[in-house]
Protein 1
Amino acid sequence: MQVADVSSNFLGFDYAEFYVGSAAAWEYLHWKAFGFRPVAYSGPETGRKDSVSYVMQQGTMRLVLTASLSEDSEISRHVSRHGDGVKDVAMTVTDVDKVAKTLASNGAILVSHPKEEKDDSGYLRRAVIGGYGDTVHSLIDRSQYRGTFRPGYEPLHEDASPVGFVKIDHVVGNVEEGKMDHWVNYYSKSFGFKQLMSFDDKDISTEYSALRSKVVHDGKRRVVMPINEPAKGRKKSQIEEFLDYYRSPGVQHIAIRTENIIKAVSDMRSRGVVFLDTPDSYYEKLSERVGGIDEPIEELRKHRILVDRDDAGYMLQIFTKPVGDRPTFFYEIIERKGGESFGKGNFKALFESIEREQAKRGNL
Ligand code: FE2
């Protein structure tokens, strides 16, 4: 049977919703350190008795930070099992009824049929589809809605000092060993998503990074989702560690696009955001590896920003330390100068620079 391709109905990421222990603490962190503006709130004051949510925005990127007010709820059970983490990777779509129906008939897990949400600012329609682990995808058609976020939320009017975030670049999921292809097929078959590129065991980076990764997207790179699984490497895979602490597959990181990564990282560092460190030796071989770039190497070294080049150009990236208590979720900050990759070359470069340091100490 010929099934309809609805991939062109996907317009982009709508928001990412976190289930956390304290929404107020996460709001403060994202507001003061990451420069998001609190734009909407829902809780007892707005008629919602059992939970609170803050909506944060910077550029077109939206986060929803949700915590439970009761001891036994879906939210508190999620936080108890997984720690603070991403529950919902929501996507904006056109014609949610058609998309949900098509996805379900293509084998997607239908968590919730399309429902209307309505207030004085119009209405929106939302369906919920299952993803890896306990992660879900809200599909939202907001073409008939003029309000700030969703019915049930009140607008907030706070100032913020943005650091220059533009949008979500990609959202990465970690799944169990041997399950990557299952989930790539899931998004390909039911969402109609395309595979962007793949690298497998033979890939040179695997030996160092101990992970395999494939990328699915809507066809226009508006919704881009790499999916990782652990691979046998020299050391315990970082993906295995994530799975141990998150207790299931889930979102490993959200990459945030900026147009000036040096300024963004400098601003965040001055506000106390902590990033993964990079050995000095990484920068000694950088020009040799990536060729000419606009940014002074000294600036990149100062802020520990990484660079990777592909056929289309280059990209700059850096990773934060885990945001919550468990070694699970973190952010990536990314600036693309034509480069379309996800930083694969940096796995190897980083590992090699660590080995150079080891060799200097006579330990290799
Ligand atoms: Fe990434």
Note: The domain at 7-155 is CATH 3.10.180.10 (2,3-Dihydroxybiphenyl 1,2-Dioxygenase; domain 1).
Protein 2
Amino acid sequence: MTQRVALVTGAMGGLGTAICQELAKAGHKVVAAYHPQFDNKDAWLQEMAEAGFNDFVCVSGDISSLEDCQTMVANAEAAVGQIDVLVNNAGITRDRMFAKMEKDGWDAVIATNLTSLFNMTKQVSAKMSERGWGRIINISSVNGLKGQAGQTNYSAAKAGVIGFTKALAAELATKGVTVNAICPGYVATKMVMAIKPEVLQSIIDGVPMKRLARPEEIGGACVYLASDIAGFMTGSTMNICGGLYYQ
Ligand code: CAA
């Protein structure tokens, strides 16, 4: 069988790295999309090579820009062919209590975590439909389901990701293209480690499993959703949060 191509946004972050690695282990050709301001690309590639991942293709752009997304996907297609699997993973936080939140912190999170799904998915969904096969995997969050104090922007964007997922899943259901969301809980990444230690400890205390997720536990779910065997699953939200929230 021809090797499938998976493009992962936010590929060089904690979660993105694990998603790239798990998809590569499962036999995908991986395109790692990263923000132009990320200046550790070479070090990341070196680290990946040392871990045995030698053939990641990199494309760079700001996912909150439609033009950048057009260019990134065009560059990826020129390098490795059509995108079969899109993982909309990139995301940011600008945590503040709502009383203190400024408009720029709201706008940045909505643009990067939600509008990016329009920008990226637009580049691939019609072509996937024409070919009769595709997988769109959107990384939402447990906080898009339950709401989190200090994250009105992030919770709103991640809830929006779920709505987008369900609506597009319905549109593409007869086209061989599935659209699913994953709602990770708190994962052991830099983003989560940036929370004040005492706040983070109280969050972990509230997780029934009393630990953070390992990034590969989310990467593994992407592998499943990207596979043929997941072909009957669409419009779903997979909660991977150690029991923190049940829908
Ligand atoms: N619920 C309700 N009120 C809360 C609260 C909570 N969970 N946590 C704090 N507060 C209240 C405090 O009691 C305090 O109230 P008073 O002023 O009346 O005493 C007030 O909020 C403190 O507000 P400040 O703005 O002064 O707080 P701060 O600046 O020290 O911290 C914060 C604000 C940065 C948002 C901090 O609370 C925080 O980091 N919270 C955690 C946010 C979080 O979970 N982020 C997840 C990041 S990881 C991620 O997003 C990945 C993913 O998908 C899970």
Note: The domain at 5-240 is CATH 3.40.50.720 (Rossmann fold).
